[in-house]
């Protein structure tokens, strides 16, 4: 076996799982965000894939394999070519010898939709659910954390085609069950959370988060188990605002109060009595951009993803790809918009009326949005649209004109009351997203003309769903969730081997004989076993066994004098002396009991 | 199941297997040389992969997965970047968002060698044999024949690292056995042949050819089974030359005799008495090119691959990437070389001495090669280096100066006598190359500095071998070898399903009940079975079953009145009436007997 462990942490690895997989010889870096899966890792990936396969097949899904090279034309048909190659730029593209543009598939909605368009003709062929387990490519801005955010990674992606919403909902729920089974069977602690749909599009969407401190995602949830959402998507009730002491509407000089804290301190009021006005520039996927003013209660923050989604709704032909908050005093960024920049820190919610006149004659111009937390306020404090001045005791209407678009773009926060039950407060956890299921609806089928004839003989666009599991990411997430100072602690179901036989002294003929016999018997009986018969000190071999994280270590040491071997559980460190004749049956029983426990959870 | 068969042959498919896979719904074209593997095809590919995996594991190989994205630097280290991206241009390359060049792996010598360099330190870790089953990319000049010559295809590639030639030879032989087993178990008629090593480099190399009329390769073999080689590599004894009637050396006027036939007719001599002189331009991978004159007996042809190899040997720093035969009267191509072009059709073997003076002052100039068939001749006829003139009765020496490089570049032909036994003559067959094994030696380990410490404590370059199976090509080759007018006839071992149950009339409750029961029982017992319960006429369903080529068709038709079903063997068309209670055991027995027959062949 190609086996080499490293004593020291590799310099470029940041999180524990990345360090451990490198040190224990599971992976090797070949390029930025690109790794070789060595034999031990490949076994883990195969085990994860097999669990995925079994659960997908059980849900009636059919396995296939779609091309990684995708003609650009397909992406132009769906309207995503520019978004993926330019605006976000996360898709690798290349030109072939005939100068034809090709994409390296980060996802396969376009390819599967063109197949559906070709092959699905009638409702009698529906529903269809297809999946593949495949290497995907993303030209990440910042590849990091090993397999967590790589440029080349293994995904299971599935796509469903349904006649109507009800059928789609059914498939979506089937996938929800399958995904829960996959994670449970893999031995992972996880949470399924409501999620934003992002660039994939569509309506309902849920993420499956493996809980781990190093997770890139924040999850908000309630302890009653009734609510969990990605922070990007989470909703909550804001804390109550304090009643305002300002009953008269007047303009006040408030020098040097560009921040909420400073205004509150100066005016001796609560930030819940303020309407703050935040200026954004948003860039749409067709290249045009718009200035956006968002008014929100002073103690609350804008959720950029929600804002992006609201802006996309307002300009339904285009997607808002980025929102950039313009910071104080970002006069330069504003200069391209208007000759006289807005007084950041002192902007009024209804600024635009006079400001718009000074806006240069460029495309769509200026949008005013107000969050619900702000519309609910009375006698509030807000900017006077003049540097160094605020108004107090203001009310929406004549005093301050209400912005034209009322939206909910507030960021939910830990400690907020839950919407489903105000007695519950939101808690925060870190998670690693390993699965994501989407109801896409007709976004791709309409764009690409994938239709079917329904029972009434009418031609209808197919309803679609898509469902992804990050296979390589899941494998690393398992390590991130389960390790100790000595190394990896694999869940039994996805460990590369169930057991490792460590021979303390290979010059002892009896040790060798017992070890080799057990090795053959265990593998024969389906207990996947490694044999460490290297000419190394026992201590080195014990350390390596701990580092690579095999669930059960069998030591053919002193106990063999009594016809026994020592079996150590990696996770609990519990040591058992087991009669040599019972080792196979005992291990088989342990493994089966762990696996069936996870299945039935 | 996503299932759709087509009545008509697709327009763009040229060979039977390509047409059948498209018509039967196994594959769909997504782009030039790029196909989606639909669920039926994916099952075939999985079966082939599983056989490959079992045989590789049995040979002690370890599975891994290497990246498809490969940094250009690795290819520059091995010296193949220019060859693969420019001279041959068969590698897709792209630039990432940081403007770094990346290759899309057509093969993995560079990646595996960099891993070996990193992880293999001592002879105690050797030998190592690693493999992967993976999608590869080649920007083919002319993608065609479906999966036969695609731009994206599935390969099993393996790489070995050995301490010495003897160990490498052992691994090479192990792989030879494994490959023979793979093809036998897949149910294919094949031949292993000696092969040229091509751009991969190295010494010994053998190809595994699936025999089929549409094969792109020609194989020459003897009926005694002692010899088989790819035509590019094949050797043989040329037919004996006829003794020359020209005993006096003289120059003759031979107007209008640019071709061998015309000279022979004009001079009333045999083509075996002639030395013909063929002019080539060869381009090396560093961009320089050379004019090459090859003298060979008049009835023989030059083998371009052998010529290329000889030229590479003569210029060991560079590879001769192309040889272009300059045709009569290609004065234009010659014009870039010399002010006065050579008289094609009348060139003399020793032309260069005066010609070289007129060659323009450009790089390496001119090479003269002579094949053994020519050096053996006496009193021969050859060109006089003057348009319209030949010499007769010539001999090497003072009359005609022998070219400086004697080589064997003759093309072996069917009908030639075999070298190992002149009683045997070479026969010709067409084949599809599905496997190729190479002894690479130290080409990559020296270029990339992959060394180990041997038992004597010396640092040595690793000896390498590489071993490839075209998994997707093998699957299509099976169809090319086994079909009839009605469709595909899959070998049992790699058929997507073993059996298909066709219900002639789905409105007959008894037929449905028996079919569904059998379907469940068969699958339970490991007989992979499809159920065709579509609302179609029986004839349509029978046709589809034949087209997709499932080995056994079970029909729940009239015979059920007697407690029986009809079972039809796809290959032989034999029909059996089998008691319903015996169907599972009978099919299981048939399948096992076919599979074990193939294993033990």
Automatic annotation (TrEMBL), chains A, B:
**Where in the cell does this protein reside?**
Cytoplasm
Supply one GO molecular-function term.
proline-tRNA ligase activity
- Aminoacyl-transfer RNA synthetases class-II family profile domain ranges (all copies): 28-491
Q: Which UniProt keywords apply?
A: Aminoacyl-tRNA synthetase, ATP-binding, Cytoplasm, Ligase, Nucleotide-binding, Protein biosynthesis
Instruction: Look at the named UniProt entry and state the broad enzyme category this protein falls under.
Output: ligase
Question: Reaction(s) catalyzed by this protein?
Answer: tRNA(Pro) + L-proline + ATP = L-prolyl-tRNA(Pro) + AMP + diphosphate
Under which EC number(s) is this enzyme classified? 6.1.1.15
The question of whether Cytoplasm is a record keyword is answered with yes
Superkingdom, according to UniProt? Bacteria
The record ties this protein, via CDD domains, to: ProRS-INS (cd04334), ProRS_anticodon_short (cd00861), ProRS_core_prok (cd00779)
Could you tell me which Pfam families the record lists for this protein?
Answer: HGTP_anticodon, tRNA-synt_2b, tRNA_edit
Q: Per the annotation, which location comes first and is thus the protein's main one?
A: cytoplasm
Describe the family membership recorded for this protein in Swiss-Prot or TrEMBL. Belongs to the class-II aminoacyl-tRNA synthetase family. ProS type 1 subfamily.
- Cite the domain annotation text: Consists of three domains: the N-terminal catalytic domain, the editing domain and the C-terminal anticodon-binding domain.
What quaternary structure, including any partners, is listed in this protein's UniProt entry? Answer: Homodimer.
**Job of this protein:** Catalyzes the attachment of proline to tRNA(Pro) in a two-step reaction: proline is first activated by ATP to form Pro-AMP and then transferred to the acceptor end of tRNA(Pro). As ProRS can inadvertently accommodate and process non-cognate amino acids such as alanine and cysteine, to avoid such errors it has two additional distinct editing activities against alanine. One activity is designated as 'pretransfer' editing and involves the tRNA(Pro)-independent hydrolysis of activated Ala-AMP.
What is the protein named?
Answer: Proline--tRNA ligase
| Protein species of origin | Brasilonema octagenarum UFV-OR1
């Amino acid at each position: 076996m190609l086996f080499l462990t490293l004593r020291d942490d590799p310099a470029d690895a940041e999180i524990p799982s990345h360090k451990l997989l490198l040190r224990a010889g599971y992976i090797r870096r070949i390029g930025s965000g690109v790794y070789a899966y060595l034999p031990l890792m490949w076994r883990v990936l195969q085990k994860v894939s097999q669990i995925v396969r079994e659960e997908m097949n059980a849900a009636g899904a059919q396995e296939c394999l779609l091309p990684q090279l995708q003609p650009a034309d397909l992406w132009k048909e769906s309207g995503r070519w520019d978004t993926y190659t330019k605006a976000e730029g996360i898709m690798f593209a290349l030109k072939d010898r005939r100068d034809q543009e090709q994409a390296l598939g980060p996802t396969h909605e376009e390819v599967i939709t063109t197949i559906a368009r070709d092959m699905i003709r009638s409702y009698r062929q529906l529903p269809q659910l297809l999946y593949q387990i495949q290497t995907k490519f993303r030209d990440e801005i910042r590849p990091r954390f090993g397999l967590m955010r790589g440029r080349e990674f293994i995904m299971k992606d599935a796509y469903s085609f349904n006649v109507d919403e009800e059928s789609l909902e059914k498939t979506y729920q089937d996938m929800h069950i399958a995904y829960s089974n996959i994670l449970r069977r893999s031995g992972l602690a996880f949470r399924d959370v409501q999620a934003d749909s992002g660039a994939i599009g569509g309506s309902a969407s849920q993420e499956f988060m493996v809980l781990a401190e190093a997770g890139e995602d924040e999850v908000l949830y309630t302890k009653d188990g009734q609510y969990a959402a990605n922070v990007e998507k989470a909703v909550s009730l804001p804390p109550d605002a304090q009643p305002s002491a300002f009953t008269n509407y007047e303009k006040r000089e408030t020098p040097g109060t560009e921040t909420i804290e400073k205004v509150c301190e100066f005016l001796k009021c609560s930030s819940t009595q303020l309407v703050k006005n935040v200026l954004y520039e948003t860039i749409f996927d067709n290249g045009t951009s718009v200035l956006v003013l968002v008014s929100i209660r002073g103690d609350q923050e804008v959720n950029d993803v929600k804002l992006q989604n609201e802006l996309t709704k307002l300009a339904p032909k285009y997607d808002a790809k980025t929102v950039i908050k313009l910071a104080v005093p970002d006069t330069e960024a504003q200069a391209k918009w208007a000759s006289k920049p807005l007084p950041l820190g002192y902007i009024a919610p209804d600024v635009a009326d006079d400001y718009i006149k000074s806006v240069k004659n460029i495309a769509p111009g200026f949008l005013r949005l107000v969050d619900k937390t702000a519309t609910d306020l009375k006698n509030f404090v807000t900017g006077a649209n003049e540097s160094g001045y605020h108004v107090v005791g203001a009310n929406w209407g004549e005093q301050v004109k209400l912005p034209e678009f009322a939206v909910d773009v507030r960021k939910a926060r830990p400690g907020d009351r839950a919407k489903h039950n105000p007695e519950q407060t939101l808690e925060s956890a870190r998670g690693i997203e390993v699965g994501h299921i989407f109801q896409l609806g007709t976004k791709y089928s309409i764009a690409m003309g994938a239709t079917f004839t329904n029972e009434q003989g009418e031609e209808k666009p197919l309803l679609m769903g898509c469902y992804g599991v990050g296979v390589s990411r899941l494998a690393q997430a398992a390590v991130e969730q389960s390790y100790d100072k000595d190394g990896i602690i694999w869940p039994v179901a996805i460990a590369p081997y169930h057991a490792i036989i460590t021979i303390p002294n290979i010059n002892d003929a009896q040790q060798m004989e017992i070890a080799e016999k057990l090795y053959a018997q265990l593998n024969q009986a389906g207990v996947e076993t490694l044999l460490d018969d290297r000419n190394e000190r026992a201590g080195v071999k014990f350390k390596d066994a701990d580092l690579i994280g095999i669930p059960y270590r069998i030591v053919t040491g002193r106990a063999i004098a009594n016809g026994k071997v020592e079996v150590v559980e990696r996770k609990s460190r519990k040591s058992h002396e087991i009669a040599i004749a019972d080792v196979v049956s005992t291990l088989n029983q342990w493994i089966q009991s762990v696996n069936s426990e996870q299945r039935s959870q």
